Amino acid sequence: LLRPYEDAGITTPLTSSVAVAAFSTAEAGAQNGVQTQASILNAGTSAPATRHIGMAICGNVEKFTIQATRMLKSLVLMMTAPYSKAQFHYDAWIYCDDAAQEVLRPRVMALQSVASKLNNYKSPPLKITLVSVRPLFMKYGDEVMSMFRRCTMTPLLQHELLPPHVKEVFIFGADQIIVDDLDQVWKQAEQMGWDGTKVFASAEECTVPRTKCGYYNNIGPNWRFGHNGLNAASTLYSIANMRSRNLSDWLVWALPRYTVDLGDQDMMNVYAREHPERASLLQCNVNVRTDAGCDIDKMPPIVLHGNRDVFESFPHWKAVADKVDALYELLESKGQYELPGTSVWDALGDRIRGNFISTLLKPWGLSPNNIADLLRPYEDTGVTTPLISAVAVADSSTAAAAGAPF
Fold first, then answer.
1. Each residue of 130-163: pLDDT tens digit?
2. Tell me, what DSSP letter sits at residue 340?
3. Contacts for 45 with CB less than 8 Å, ≥ 6 apart
4. I want to staple 365 with a disulfide (CB 3.0 to 4.6 A). Which of 73, 75, 207, 360 is the partner?
C-alpha cells in the first residue's frame, strides 16, 4: 500500500514524501530507543514505542514474592486488548538479589509466555528482565542499600544498573496493583510539569487536610517536602537526569547528614527540599492507599498501593487481590477477549469496588497540578505553615556552601 498505484497511466503515490520522511524518522528513532510523539504517531505498522517500569524485590520471603508476582500479573492484564489502547510496549526491570532471582525466574518465564500471546507484533509487548543488585551492594554496602528494608535504596541508584538507552522508569513497589492503563501516568506527568528538567515525579503522601495528614506530619522525621511529604511508590524517574545530576554522589553525601527511617522515601523528600525545581508531582490516583485521601470520584485509580500488607489483612483489599488473580487465570485459560469490563478497575465489579472504596479514609482531595503550590505557605484558621521550614532552607544553604555534589 505504500507503493504508487497506476491507473489509466496516472501514478498516484499513496503516501506523500513528507509522510514517508516522517515514517523513516520515527522508525529510526524507535531503533535508537528514542521515544518521541512522532515515533508513536507516525510509526505505521511498526510495533509501539517502549515504556520502562521497575520494581525492587530482595530475599525469598513468600509474601513479597506473591505480591511481586501479582503486580506483574496486573501489568499483563493492563496490556490486554480490552484494557489498553496498545500504544506502548513495556520493558520491566526487576531489581533483585540472588535469593529473589531464584524464586522469581520461573514465575517471570510463565508471565512472559502469557504476555507474548497478546498481539501479533514481532516484538513482545512485555519484556521482563531480572537485574542483579549485587553491584550496588558491593559498591555501597548493606548499611546503605538496606535502610528500612533490604534493597530499599535501589530506586535512587537504579541508573547505575540500567543500559544507556533507558531514559525514564516508572517505579512500583511489590505491594501495588495496576488497575488502569499506565499511559495515563505519562500524560498526567506532562500536564503537571514533567518537562525534561526533573529528576523525579511522585505523588504526595496524602492530600488533605493540608499540613496535618500522613506519616510525615504525625510520625516521621522532619524531612517532609511540601504540605504532607512525598510517597516513594509510583515514582517516575528520569534516568538521564539521575546520571547528569550525579544523584549517586548526592546520596552518599547526604545520608550521613540525616536520620533516615523510610530509606529512599525520606531521601526523596530531602532531595526535593534541597532542589524543588528538579521535582514534580503526580496525582494521587497513581498511588491510592487507605490513608492517601485521594478523591477517586474525580480521578479514578490507576495504581493501588497495599502498604502495611492490606492486600493480605484487609478483607475488602484482599478481595481486590483475589479478583486480579482470578482475572489472570481467566486470561490464561480463555484468552484476553473473555475478560470483562474496560479495565481491571471496571472488572472488579460494583460490590468489590464499593467495599474497597469504603476503606478509604476521608476527607478526600487532590494534589495541586503545580509543585510550586507546595512551596508556598498554607494558611489554615489563620496559622501559616511554611512548607519548607527555615531549618530546611538553612540545611539547603549549608549543603551548597559545603560543596555538595549537586
1. 999 999 999 999 989 888 888 999 999 999 999 9
2. -
3. none
4. 207
Whether the CA torsion 394, 400, 402, 404 is positive or negative: it is: positive
H or E stretch at 129: strand 126-132
Q: How far is it, in rounded angstroms, from Cα 182 to Cα 287? A: 12
What are the angstrom distances between the C-alpha of 282 and each of 8, 181, 254, 296?
Answer: 58, 15, 25, 14
For the stretch 232-270, pLDDT in tens is 999 999 999 999 999 999 999 999 998 888 889 999 999
Residue 97, phi then psi, degrees to nearest 5: -90, 180
Q: In what order do the strands lie in the sheet with 49-57?
A: 126-132, 88-96, 49-57, 168-172, 235-238, 200-202, 279-281
CA dihedral (279, 283, 287, 288) positive or negative: positive
Which letter does DSSP use for residue 221 in this model?
Answer: -
Judging by DSSP bridges, how do beta strands 383-385 and 378-380 pair with one another?
antiparallel
pLDDT digits (tens, 9 = 90+) for 8-60: 444 333 433 433 333 343 344 434 433 333 333 333 445 678 999 999 999 98
For the record, the C-alpha cell of 350 comes out as: 460494583
Q: Phi and psi (nearest 5°) for 66?
A: -65, -45
What cell does 30 get?
Answer: 524507535
Residue 150 cell numbers, joined: 533490604
CA atoms within 13 A of residue 246's CA, in its CB half-sphere: 8
What is the spatial distance between Cα 172 and Cα 92, in angstroms, rounded to a whole number? 10
- Grid cell 465489579 is found at 349
For residues 377 and 387, the answer to whether their CB atoms sit within 8 Å is yes
List of residues 6+ apart from 299 with CB closer than 8 A: 283, 284, 285, 366
What whole-number distance in Å separates Cα of residue 102 and Cα of residue 276? 40
The answer to whether 241 touches 199, Cβ cutoff 8 Å, is yes
Which residues touch 169 (CB under 8 Å, ≥6 apart)? 52, 53, 54, 93, 158, 162, 236, 237, 239
Distance CA 32, CA 49 (A): 11
pLDDT confidence of 219, banded at 50, 70, 90?
Answer: confident
The closest of 287, 23, 331, 13 to 172, measured between CA atoms, is 287
Question: Measured between alpha carbons, how far is 263 from 254 in angstroms, rounded to an integer?
Answer: 12
Tallying the residues shown for the chain, one arrives at 406
